[in-house]
Specification:
Blueprint lengths: L4 E4 L2 E4 L6 H8 L2 H6 L9 H11 L8 E6 L6 E11 L2 E8 L8 H15 L4 E7 L3 H9 L3 E12 L2 E11 L19 E2 L3 E5 L5 H4 L9 H9 L1 H6 L3 E8 L5 E9 L6 E8 L8 H16 L4 E7 L3 H9 L3 E6 L8 E7 L4
Parallel strand pairs: 5-6, 13-14
Antiparallel strand pairs: 1-2, 2-3, 3-4, 4-5, 6-8, 7-8, 9-10, 10-11, 11-12, 12-13, 14-16, 15-16
Helix pairs in contact: 1-3, 4-5
The protein binds coenzyme A (COA).
The site of coenzyme A has 23 residues, from helix 2, strand 5, helix 4 and helix 5.
Length: 348
């Protein structure tokens, strides 16, 4: 890892210079950088920045490597990317981007460039760890060709405790990315029929989602459910959406799909409304919108649902949305039997 500079698509990775200290200090004091890189000093002082650009960054050579990410036009520092030596031929990558340079592909290009350079230097496996709440970094991982391998429990240190981290890896010979997704993003970020709007659930939705009759008793579980919605989606496991009234923006409920492991072409649909919004056709609209997109815009081919036999309203919603009742699931332990419904991809 002795390169002085590495060219990527729209980015240059180069050694740090003393003149980078101001930009490093500003970016490392940014709240998002501080939140997702808990090992950084808080606050990140001028002395910290000076130490990093003059000796800290270089200390990882020759087994790893830390690079400034520079704008190839101006050579100004816009981010940082580093490869930490883990064990023989295995490295771990990390990065941050200055706030003003985010959202235009810099991290993805830099991660890809350093990963590919590492393979040419003899590395066989590069790992990447992201927090479950850090959707942007998970998207960088996918964009740079990494595969999600699972969740490392208590894998990350933070002040006062440890966090679970998603573990990603790219091994030599893997395609350059983006890593394909079975559950892509919604077209334009939403589904709407002019009356209801379905959008991906966010951490900020937790107080509204907690109003649903099916919400867990502990509000912190709902906070986690909402905050980890992106991670579940990007893992091709689950889609979690909120349903809102288009006219007022008021929260009406949630709808979602859970992919049925191990068959990634089947998913279970779920839709819940707050009591005040029941009986107005919102659930049928939401289910139709979600199923219409899922069966044409994703790899899903068969959507299924289980409805308690006495729940006539839910059965009507599914039947109006085109689901066909396939049978009755008998249950034990005093639990109510379910009618099983399914809807297939058109033309199947
Ligand atoms: C995570 C971070 C490095 C991303 O940098 P970036 O240059 O903005 O990333 P890119 O422009 O390459 O975007 C990558 C993807 O993230 C998405 N993205 C960018 N900002 C986002 C945000 N705030 N929320 C959700 N997604 C976001 C982009 O749309 C893109 O998605 P796509 O590939 O599906 O189209 C940057 O936000 C950052 O510095 N965060 C703080 C430090 C950090 O989290 N480091 C990583 C620790 S693991």
């Amino acid at each position: 890892m002795r390169a002085d500079s590495i060219e990527g698509t729209g980015v240059r990775l180069r050694r740090y210079r003393a003149a980078d200290a101001g930009a490093v200090r500003a970016a490392c004091n940014d709240p998002l950088t501080q939140r997702f890189l808990p090992a950084l000093p808080r606050p990140y002082t001028e002395a910290d920045a000076q130490r990093w650009v003059t000796e800290g960054a270089a200390a990882a050579f020759p087994s790893g490597g830390n690079f400034a990410i520079a704008d190839p036009g101006t050579d100004a520092l816009i981010g940082s990317v580093g490869l930490l030596y883990v064990q023989e031929n295995v490295g771990s990558i990390g990065y941050w981007i200055a706030p003003q340079a985010r959202g235009r592909g810099v991290a993805t290009a830099a991660a890809r460039a350093l990963t590919e350079y590492a393979f040419t230097a003899g590395y066989a496996r590069i790992e990447l760890r992201t927090e479950l709440e850090n959707a942007a970094s998970q998207r960088v991982a996918l964009g740079a060709g990494y595969t999600r391998e699972g969740v490392g429990r208590a894998a990350g240190a933070r002040p006062g405790g440890r966090d679970d981290l998603i573990v990603w890896a790219r091994v030599a010979g893997d395609p350059p990315g983006p890593t394909p997704r079975h559950l892509p993003d919604l077209p334009g970020g939403e589904l709407t029929d002019g009356v209801v709007r379905l959008t991906p659930m966010r951490a900020a939705d937790a107080p509204a989602v907690q109003l649903l009759p099916c919400a867990p008793a502990a509000p912190e579980e709902t906070v986690r459910y909402c905050a980890h919605a992106d991670a579940a989606w990007l893992a091709d496991q689950e889609i979690r959406l909120t349903i809102r009234d288009v006219a007022t923006g008021a929260f009406a409920g949630r709808a979602g799909l859970t992919v049925r492991h191990p068959d990634p072409t089947q998913a279970e649909i779920d839709c819940r409304l707050i009591p005040a919004r029941q009986g107005h056709g919102y659930a049928t609209r939401a289910v139709k919108l979600l199923c219409g997109w899922a069966l044409t815009g994703t790899a899903l081919e068969r959507l299924v649902a289980g409805v308690p036999t006495p729940d006539l309203a839910a059965q009507r919603v599914l039947e109006r949305s085109g689901f066909v009742r396939e049978g009755q699931e008998r249950r034990t332990g005093g639990r109510t039997d379910l009618y099983r419904y399914a809807l297939l991809r058109p033309g199947s």
